[in-house]
Protein: CPNE9 protein
Organism: Sinosuthora webbiana
Amino acid sequence: SVPGTKVELTVSCRNLLDMDTFSKSDPVVVLFVQVSGSSEWKEFGRTEVIDNTLNPDFVRKFVLDYYFEEKQNLRFDVSPPGSHSALLGAQDFLGQAFVALGEVIGSQRGRLERPLTGVPGKRCGTILLLAEELSNCRDIVTMQLCANKLDKKDFFGKSDPFLVFYRSNEDGTFTICHKTEVVKNTLNPVWQPFTIPVRALCNGDYDRTVKIDVYDWDRDGSHDFIGEFATSYRELSRAQSQFTVYEVLNPRKKCKKKKYVNSGTVTLLSFSVESEFTFVDYIRGGTQLNFTVAIDFTASNGLPSQPTSLHYASPYQLSAYALALKAVGEIIQDYDSDKLFPAYGFGAKVPPDGKISHQFPLNNNVENPSCAGIEGVLESYLQSLRTVQLYGPTNFAPVINQVAGTAAQVTDGSQYHVLLIITDGVISDMLQTKEAIVTASSLPMSIIIVGVGPAEFEAMEELDGDEVRLSSRGRYAERDIVQFVPFRDYVDDSGNQVLSMARLAKDVLAEIPEQLLSYMKTRDIKPRRADPE
């Protein structure tokens, strides 16, 4: 996700345990953040103390950096003031809650209520969390300017004017943020409309000075200064209803000449603002991520009962397939309200009649191939390994077309599908798969491919389309919807599986927010507003 997506958490509690004999408790909430890939918790911050209440609404908020592609585990401890959690006596503790940041953002309207636990035999009440993305001021401005009667600077012919925009900084200095094109040989130029993020223009501060210099372009780079004027975002934005005319002044001329009026004028012809929406806007507006899993059951994986097989699960360690599924699934499930995941296998002979299938439900239920939670998918996967015969060929197209068929039913932006294919990578139906992906690229879906085992994955790299846009029979994919990673790049020698799987999930999921946004943008779908309470 975009670096610097900051999320503000507001905390309230309801029906806290009453510890004080004489008055109600004086609660404070301490937030701990789990260090990625370890079991260590670090204190992140604490709310203020609110005296004498069992239903506190805290004013002090927590501002966290949010990454869709990481599991960001949070722990909230509720206690009376002065007691540091590490030293909390049992008599002081009012309860705690564990929650992933993605769960809060993925819940309806970014609101989540969780029971507090941790005091044996007592009801500890609940904690309420509200997540809001801090407005990073994501508006984008389009404006057009023209000028009249600019000073003539060139000996032969008229001037070749262009504009330079500067935003002012806190310390009074200026930073260049935009240059228009040069309009040749005229004192009355009309510049092309241009677009600029509001952040770049004024850092989100609408009253900050924006300085604009007018220059006459010279081939040798020694452009002549014609004059300058100053404005602000707020002043510019008034041009939505009327033309704004600025006088271009040259301070040196002003000092020298008594009769100096100006060096021409610049008129703002048009000014419009558009919002750039973010991934969080859509999730908060109710867009659901639907997660489907497809697992490679071809013979090239090796017999599941043999330790050399990619499907081999020892009593001590999950197979590469199970690990990849867990790593990606555990993050995505926070954004899927029903937590039901259709799961398929491909490339096996399936009982009772040993037919080869490229999309058999792992739970053996054709009517309803959904499994409950990632744990449900893992169970069905292990069950299937015992009942089907690994075979071939390795065909991706059937399962891609299956998910595409579902995605095509709802294209209004309320549903987005993510298909995870885990494979040992020797693909048999490359042409059909390319065709399927090109078709799917206009639908609300993304495909993640995790390659396990030692194979060379050139075919997968081609499907990924990062280097060259994927095409099939002369049709190009409308957007890049495939993300491929080889599992072996994430198995680290130190054997820290938790950390290596967190890295895997991070890399395969990193492109999903952008892919979802590109779908919404090309369809001009705006996020549904989270209704105010």
